[in-house]
Amino acid sequence: MLPYKLRIMKKIISIIVLISLGVFTSCNKDVLNKRPLSIISDEDVFTDPALINAYLTQVYAEMTFLGNDCSGIGQQGDAAWNAFDINDVSDESFPQWRDWNPSNAFTYKYGNLTINGGLLDWWGYGVIRKINEFLEKLPASPLSEEEIKAKLAEARFLRAFCYFAMVKRYGGVPLITAVQQISDPQDELYPPRATEQQVYDFIISEMDACANDLPEVVNGDNIGRPSKYAALALKSRAALYAGSIAQFGSVELNGVVGIPANLAKTYYQQSYDASQAIIESGKYALYNADADKTTNFRNIFLVKNHSEVIFAKRHDSMNQMSGGNGWCVDFFNCPRPQAWARGLYEQAYLEFAESFEYVDGSPGKLDRNTLPNKLLTTEELWGSRDPRFYATFYTQNTLWKGSQLDFHAGIRLPNGTIKTDGSYNGIPATGEQDYQGTGIGVLKYLDENHDNMAGANSGWATSAQDWLIFRYAEILLNHAEAAFELGNTADALSSINQIRTRAGIAVLNSVSRDQIHNERKVELAFEGHRYWDVRRWRTAVKELSVRWSGIRYILDAASGKYQIQIINNVDGASNIPQFRNENYYLPITNGRTANNPKLVENPGY
């Protein structure tokens, strides 16, 4: 999480190794009587403040889900394409490299999730053991009482976040809060799954217990670590999830999955209260530094440490594949030119783009019946949209690095035929961008100053943008949803309209559940929320089992306008998106249930 501390840890270990080598060469006759100094014991760690920090930093590094719900590190994490799986398994986008597609989402999106698992898998008990050891041993360290209290709170926050990452995947999981020893009774070594309610209650109670021991504000070397308000943000999110699961889900396996419906309002109230505390603190505000609404929304994800950031995974421009802490968003998602002559890895579905309203608040759905019969400019096609549309997507004629992007896929000649090869009057028949995908790229998080021609030999993980785990806009959206479900439509409307006003779109006079859900869909697009949201609302079977479409631009030679073609079933004829009812929970998997027979498998697998 904090790369400079990882480097400190490596330096400390290197120094210890060098010291040990020096001892061996100068005093080798006594070496068999000495403890090897190249081995750092637990006793050593918890007597040295630098090693204590390094230990906790390693915990962050192993919480790989903090990088957009990735399952691993390096090429299994946010250094490569797995950073986008959470978006591509939803209705936002799909990974469109047709000859080579490494994404897990590409397989599991089409109904192929089985008991063997593999999608977004994160079973974090190795990390939880490290945190439990930290919580047990830190109180005896030489740190001051105040430092110990703050670091214990930080560790509890991280442990609760680990459990949140698992409960939203699997439902109830074993709650292990002490270090297990091989001599422990079998019942303790192989615990059963707790109920889903018990896990959510644990997360919420831990945030209540540790929030006030965390700093109100983090700065300097501590940016990237949790504050009091990060704990409240986790409570806000987790309680909202629990409330909607109780409201829309069903209880199975004696509560191992599902939460009783009569608890929904209790959880919504807890989420509302946590969000309200963040709002009333005055510590955060919607980012609003730029007069142009599109530029302003883009800069939320490019400017660091601004008023909206509550908790972030920090990145630098050093290649993660070589020990740095960069990530890969620019290299994979950029338009061409790109070092592999690819780019555009994630391509957004047309239906998702249509979720963005016009600035007057009218629906953004295109008229597909009349569209192919018209010749349009891109301004006529996409003009007057919610400014967030232009900050989230790029498509035909989007300005990028001083030039307009060209996705056109053929030239319409004066006789009405379409030329798809060569050129006409000096104009190439096809543009330089990938016109065989959806025709809509993902602009959010992209930095136009990044060098996307320097990505050969795994050198792509150099994007420096921080990943925003909690931001103030989400808190307003959580607040609105919880308020609405509690019957407080006035607060729900107020929070939604704050978001819309910042975006530059007409405010609402009243608000419905569908409008709240769509506002969340638009504001948080490609931030790793959509897949989990439709699961907790229990709408995924309907919303993720859809044959989505893309768009093609045919350049009209005479007018310079475009004939628009809708490409149906853009995933491919044999790739049919399918989310089944059992997929509301990921499988525990055969390997885990074989290792611990008390781990009952989730329904349907």
From TrEMBL:
Residues annotated as transmembrane: none
Domain SusD-like N-terminal: 122-239
Domain RagB/SusD: 308-605
Record's keyword annotation contains Membrane: yes
Keywords: Cell outer membrane, Membrane, Signal
CDD domains documented for this protein: SusD (cd08977)
InterPro entries named among the record's database cross-references: SusD-like_N, SusD_RagB_dom, TPR-like_helical_dom_sf
Subcellular location: Cell outer membrane
Pfam families listed in its UniProt record: SusD-like_3, SusD_RagB
Family, as annotated: Belongs to the SusD family.
The protein's name in its UniProt record: RagB/SusD family nutrient uptake outer membrane protein
Organism: Olivibacter ginsenosidimutans
